[in-house]
């Protein structure tokens, strides 16, 4: 089971299981007669999150750490975003971009409880439209399911991603080219990603959680 430490203990986002773990008692708490410290975790469902599927599939580094600033493209209703918010913690920030106003309503509602999430209801193909909200970020995660996804990621990376920053891209083969084998689509997308100054590090298919999907991770490099 994959879990994240709940940023808002006592609350779930999409009905996910919550687990409370008691740790050894803090000496100062013992003096005051208080109970052992409790930490709450949320189960992260890999069938509802490409990022969780990638982690369980063997991706060791998604570049997201406490204090990180993450630009999340394709935030949908915010289920995965909420777990990324857990990962970066109260000192981090998740700039969550979603085009659909319907999904955006759920995203905004989730963000009212997780103040490190900045919901942005906008088109990721036009990153200049949210330049007043987003600063330089450490990581970009993309799950926009568009034929020109590599170009979209590149546009956002050139504007907002630090040199040496991490990139995690979820690729759905059918959204790129439904007539070609998935492996060929993935290979072509990797070449497009390279052209955007992103140096791939890991490529992993997401079976059994998703069919004809893969995740590519990489680093944004300085142009030669």
Give a summary of the structure in a few sentences.
The protein is of the alpha/beta class and 224 residues long. It has helices at residues 27-31, 50-57, 79-88, 101-111, 149-160, 173-176, 182-195, and strands at 3-5, 18-22, 38-43, 69-73, 93-98, 117-121, 137-142, 161-172, 198-205, 213-220. It has a 7-stranded mixed β-sheet with strand order 6-5-4-7-8-10-9, with helices on both faces.
Key phrases:
single chain, about 220 residues, alpha/beta, three-stranded antiparallel beta sheet, 10 strands, globular, SAM-dependent_MTases_sf, rRNA methyltransferase activity, rRNA processing
Task: Give the arrangement of secondary structure elements.
Layout: E1 3-5, E2 18-22, H1 27-31, E3 38-43, H2 50-57, E4 69-73, H3 79-88, E5 93-98, H4 101-111, E6 117-121, E7 137-142, H5 149-160, E8 161-172, H6 173-176, H7 182-195, E9 198-205, E10 213-220
Parallel strand pairs: 4-5, 4-7, 5-6, 7-8
Antiparallel strand pairs: 1-3, 2-3, 8-10, 9-10
Notes on the structure:
The chain has 224 residues and is an alpha/beta fold. The protein has one domain: Vaccinia Virus protein VP39 (Rossmann fold), CATH 3.40.50. Helix content is 29%, strand content 29%. The strands form two sheets. It has a seven-stranded mixed beta sheet with strand order 6-5-4-7-8-10-9, sandwiched between helices. A three-stranded antiparallel beta sheet has the order 1-3-2. α5 (149-160) runs parallel beside α7. The N and C termini lie far apart (42 Å). It holds the Pfam family Fibrillarin. InterPro entries: Fibrillarin, SAM-dependent_MTases_sf. GO terms for molecular function: histone H2AQ104 methyltransferase activity; RNA binding; rRNA methyltransferase activity. Belongs to the methyltransferase superfamily. Fibrillarin family.
């Amino acid at each position: 089971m994959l879990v994240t430490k709940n940023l808002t203990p006592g609350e779930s986002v999409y009905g996910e299981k919550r687990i409370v773990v008691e740790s050894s008692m803090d000496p100062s708490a013992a003096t005051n007669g208080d109970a052992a410290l409790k930490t709450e975790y949320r189960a992260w469902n890999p069938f509802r999150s490409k990022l969780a599927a990638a982690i369980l599939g063997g991706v060791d580094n998604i570049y997201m750490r406490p204090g990180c600033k993450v630009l999340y493209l394709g935030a949908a209703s915010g289920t995965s975003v909420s777990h990324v918010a857990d990962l970066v913690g109260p000192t981090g920030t998740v700039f969550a971009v979603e085009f659909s106003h319907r999904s955006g309503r759920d995203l905004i509602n989730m963000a009212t409880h997780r103040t490190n999430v900045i919901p942005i209801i906008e088109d990721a193909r036009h990153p200049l439209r949210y330049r007043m909200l987003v600063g330089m970020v450490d990581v970009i995660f993309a799950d926009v399911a568009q034929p020109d996804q590599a170009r979209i990621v590149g546009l956002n990376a050139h504007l907002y991603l630090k040199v040496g920053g991490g990139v995690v891209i979820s690729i759905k083969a059918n959204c790129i080219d439904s007539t070609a084998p998935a492996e060929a689509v993935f290979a072509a997308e990797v070449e497009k990603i390279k052209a955007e100054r992103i140096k791939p590090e890991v490529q992993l298919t997401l079976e059994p959680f998703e069919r004809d999907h893969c995740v590519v991770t990489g680093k944004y490099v300085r142009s030669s």
